[in-house]
Design goal:
Number of helices: 3
Strand content: 5-15%
Largest sheet: 2 strands, antiparallel
Radius of gyration: 17 Å
Helix content: 10-25%
Shape: flat
Distance between the termini: 29 Å
């Protein structure tokens, strides 16, 4: 939890066995201390070029989906390919393919 009272729980939607494996081998025991990094924008958004990189499995409806079948068989593997989402794309133009997060929240945010 940071000074604003926000908590980020990266394990919330993981299967319990995968979460336990990651915690055991990859995550230090100590809790993150400090503020979540945040930098206010120096110029208005309409004068800014930005890129968003996400691991949420978002793709255009016309793109091939991410390979979730292999990840179901091999839980520590993840499809490392990427999809470009062009400017002007609407929420109805994208799909969300992810095994370890509740994609309903993403779909709800887009509506």
């Amino acid at each position: 939890m940071d000074s604003s009272g926000k908590t980020v729980d990266g394990f919330r939607f993981l299967p319990p066995s995968l979460g336990a494996w990651i915690r055991r081998f990859h995550i230090p025991e100590e809790e993150f201390k400090g503020d979540i990094p945040w930098t206010p924008m120096a110029v208005p958004l309409n004068r800014t070029t930005l890129a968003l990189v996400t691991t949420a499995g978002i793709s255009l409806n016309s793109d091939p989906p991410f390979d979730m079948e292999r990840e179901k068989r091999e839980p520590t593997w993840g499809d490392r390919s990427f999809r470009m989402i062009p400017r002007g794309t609407g929420a109805g133009d994208v799909s969300v393919n992810h095994l370890h997060i509740n994609t309903g929240y993403i779909r709800r945010d887009g509506s």
